[in-house]
TrEMBL record, chains A, B, C, D, E, F:
Protein name from the UniProt record: Tautomerase
Active site (UniProt): 2
Organism of origin: Calidifontibacillus erzurumensis
Transmembrane is among the record's keywords: no
InterPro entries cross-referenced by the UniProt entry: 4-OT, 4-OT-like_dom, Tautomerase/MIF_sf
Length: 67, 67, 67, 67, 67, 67
């Protein structure tokens, strides 16, 4: 019954990529800890770049500077 | 001052149902632990079915299969 | 597959009370949203009163004042 | 590498205010704990007032009553 | 700057397994989304089995029944 | 009613420092968003360095290397 929450910035992640993240994390927990995929919950939160800060700045600002 | 976070898939939950969830959880904490409703915070997060995985799959895919 | 996280201060909550919280929340989600209890995850986090703030103060301090 | 999550109701917070929150929290962690701003992550979640409960009620309802 | 939170029950996970989880998740985000490992944060929360509920029951109880 | 969660590694943070973090964050939300300190919840989670990963490594390992 692991619960995994992945928070990333909302910058065009495709459904296919989300599929790979969910699959990859679920397999990792199965392989490392023997957890049952059927009760492994993975939730992906996509966050606006205005709402994500690093280095004291909004990611929106860093992206404008090419970071 | 309990903080309760309810994460569910975004599949048409009505405002009335959210009202019942908030009321129900707040009353439960009052009845079981004697917590003051006035400082009990309940936050409901609704997550796209593409962003929620179980059994290594996106819920969107499971819904297409009738699960 | 709902995921519910209950954060409360670490102030002697008994195993029986945790049982009631888990049961109560799971039944609430079944009754209000028709969710399957078998895939409803409830996690209770107990937080030291030094680590919980309200009104800009640690709960430890408020408890010493009888609040 | 601190991770700070700020959950607030979605009630018109401006980008400038988000900037100030990110800056303020990052500086606080630098000043109090000596944490490196470059690896301090701050995420702001804005939650619909229908999805936020206090006192067993949705904030939407409380706002209609002027609270 | 992804932030990944893995919540599992506290049932003897070794440091080596935690190492593999951290490495695996970080590589997955690098390979799928091109994220920089140096700013990928992974936090593992281990939760007492009394504090984790599934099917409306504490995991402690399910373990006693061999589940 | 803001809810702020601060996750840091468990490396000897003092009660006084936690007090300053709680006070600082609560004042920041009051000053920037006009939020009422009396209903601002701040929770500090301290995480073992074995359970915190950055750059694909456990912080325990990085600390042994002087990072």
């Amino acid at each position: 019954m692991p619960y995994v929450n992945i928070k990333i910035t909302k910058e065009g992640v495709t459904s296919e990529q989300k599929k790979q993240l969910i699959e990859g994390v679920t397999n990792l927990l199965r392989d490392v800890l023997g957890k049952n995929p059927q009760t492994t919950v993975v939730v992906i939160d996509e966050v606006d770049t205005d709402n994500w800060g690093i280095g004291g700045e909004q990611v929106t600002i860093r992206r404008q500077r090419g970071q």
